[in-house]
């Protein structure tokens, strides 16, 4: 009977133990009695190596593993977490110069949370629309990829809030079509990543164009941000619609002939995704993110990537 373990459910107030102020609820901890927080020893833990070109490298390497956070993880995740992201969305996710390492805001947050949880981690590139199916199948444990927290996605996925962002258009430098508001693109070709929040936004504006007796958007759908941008670069599209920090990053690039046009009044919360079946993992990820916020690491990471404007006040789980 060596392999049989006894489990107990212990309810503790997250705010008193981890300083999770503002979470508004108690955290349910699933504690292995053989490895409760008082008995966990993470003194030999080493953070998974951080790429040299990661702007938040020094910040991540300062984060110490927390026994209380580690104890929140179900045992099958204590050996490590399998993260996924969709590369090609700077400054959120991008390849380092060696075309092997993944860096950016989302990889930095994934590495920081893993360090605080005291677990090793892997990070794999995946097409945007394949990430949630990857969580459901168990190929991945957690996704961090600029994903908007929506009611539709919550049907299969739990989201820990971590940043907020609005949308923007990318147009040819000089803005030859004089795009100032979304309606200025009625009847024009607009490239976007299919299945993302930008697609839903463009579809809504296109419908408004028709209701005003104007031509709808001619929407060009792509699997990744890079190919949508290539459509604009080649002249196939008149504009792309994407998230504001990504548009600003592209527009500031020396080798891109783009200009960003911010869209007013269109801000949304982005979330770290976990399969709905993994409730205790989601609670651990929420606690880890709130820990980063409370200790100042979160803000430091955003500043390192020059996106502090995206900061949120607390890490909620499905908005609560």
TrEMBL record:
Domain Solute-binding protein family 3/N-terminal: 84-309
Pfam families according to UniProt: SBP_bac_3
InterPro entries reported in the protein's UniProt record: Solute-binding_3/MltF_N
Keywords for this protein: Signal
SUPFAM superfamilies the UniProt entry points to: Periplasmic binding protein-like II
Name by which UniProt lists this protein: ABC transporter substrate-binding protein
């Amino acid at each position: 009977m060596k392999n049989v373990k006894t489990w107990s459910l212990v309810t503790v107030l997250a705010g008193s133990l981890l300083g999770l102020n503002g979470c508004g609820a108690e955290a349910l901890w699933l504690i292995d009695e053989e490895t409760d927080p008082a008995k966990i020893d993470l003194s030999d833990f080493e953070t998974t190596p951080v790429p040299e070109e990661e702007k938040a490298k020094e910040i991540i390497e300062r984060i110490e593993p927390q026994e209380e956070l580690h104890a929140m993880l179900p045992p099958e995740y204590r050996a490590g977490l399998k993260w996924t992201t969709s590369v090609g969305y700077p400054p959120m996710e991008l390849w380092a110069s060696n075309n092997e390492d993944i860096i950016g805001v989302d990889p930095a947050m994934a590495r920081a949370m893993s360090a605080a949880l005291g677990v090793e981690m892997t990070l794999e590139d995946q097409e945007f629309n394949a990430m949630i199916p990857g969580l459901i199948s168990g190929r991945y444990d957690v996704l961090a990829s600029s994903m908007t927290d929506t009611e539709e996605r919550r049907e299969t996925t739990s989201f820990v809030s971590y940043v907020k962002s609005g949308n923007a258009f990318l147009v040819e430098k000089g803005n030859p079509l004089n795009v100032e508001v979304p309606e200025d693109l009625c009847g024009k070709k607009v490239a976007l990543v299919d299945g993302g929040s930008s697609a839903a936004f463009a579809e809504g504006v296109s419908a408004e164009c028709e209701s005003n007796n104007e031509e709808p958007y001619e929407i060009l759908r792509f699997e990744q941000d890079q190919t949508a941008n290539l459509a604009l670069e080649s002249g196939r599209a008149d504009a792309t619609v994407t998230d504001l920090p990504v548009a600003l990053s592209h527009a500031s690039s020396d080798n891109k002939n783009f200009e960003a046009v911010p869209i007013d009044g269109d801000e949304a919360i982005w979330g770290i995704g976990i399969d709905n079946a993994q409730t205790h993992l989601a609670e651990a990820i929420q606690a880890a993110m709130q820990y980063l916020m409370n200790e100042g690491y979160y803000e430091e990471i955003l500043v390192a990537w020059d996106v502090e404007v995206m900061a949120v006040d607390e890490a909620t789980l499905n908005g609560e």
